[in-house]
Amino acid sequence: MGCGRVGSTVATRLAHEGHEVTVIDNEPYSFRRLPTDFVGRKLVGSGVDDHVLESAGVRGADAFLALTQGDNRNLLAAQMARHLFSVATVVARVYDPFRGEIFAHLGLRTFSPTNIGADLAYEALFKE
């Protein structure tokens, strides 16, 4: 879910590796980030709508990634994928590191660009 810079890059990589990929985004213009040879499905809609998730095939999915700009949308969609549709591997981007930790305890895999960026900035200070 989410066809921004991160979502489109991950979707493209997975598709090129031979995985069956469906990208959900509520803005059709976002799909322009996918390469012209993208073989996955593109689905316009909200990833927090259970009918959209069902249409995307989430019920039979091995994994679900929530990669929009909004923590609330990512966490809600990830929880839906995990608990309503029993997706085994669910990953959510969460900008707020504290919230990410809380939801990790609920069975979601989370990562925080805030923490990653802070670590990179700190390490860059000491590079020679």
Characteristics:
128 residues, alpha/beta, Rossmann fold, three-stranded parallel sheet, two-stranded parallel sheet, 5 strands
The count of strands amounts to 5
User: N- to C-terminal separation?
Assistant: 39 Å
In the CATH hierarchy, the third-tier topology is known as Rossmann fold
Order of helices and strands: HEEHEHEHEH
Which strand order spans the largest sheet, edge to edge or round the barrel? 3-4-5
At the fourth level of CATH, the homologous superfamily is NAD(P)-binding Rossmann-like Domain
Mean pLDDT: 95
What CATH architecture would you give? 3-Layer(aba) Sandwich
Which sheet architecture does the biggest sheet show?
3 strands, parallel
The percent range for helix content is: 40-55%
Low-confidence stretches: none
Structural description of this entry:
With 128 residues, this protein is α/β, with parallel strands linked by helices. The protein has a single domain (5-125), classed as Rossmann fold (3-Layer(aba) Sandwich), CATH 3.40.50.720. Helix content is 42%, strand content 16%. It contains five helices and five strands. The chain has helices spanning 5-16, 50-56, 71-84, 97-104, 113-125, and strands at 22-25, 41-44, 63-66, 89-93, 109-111. The strands form two sheets. The protein has a three-stranded parallel beta sheet with strand order 3-4-5. Helix 3 links the parallel strand 3 and strand 4. The radius of gyration is 15 Å and the shape is globular. The mean pLDDT is 95.
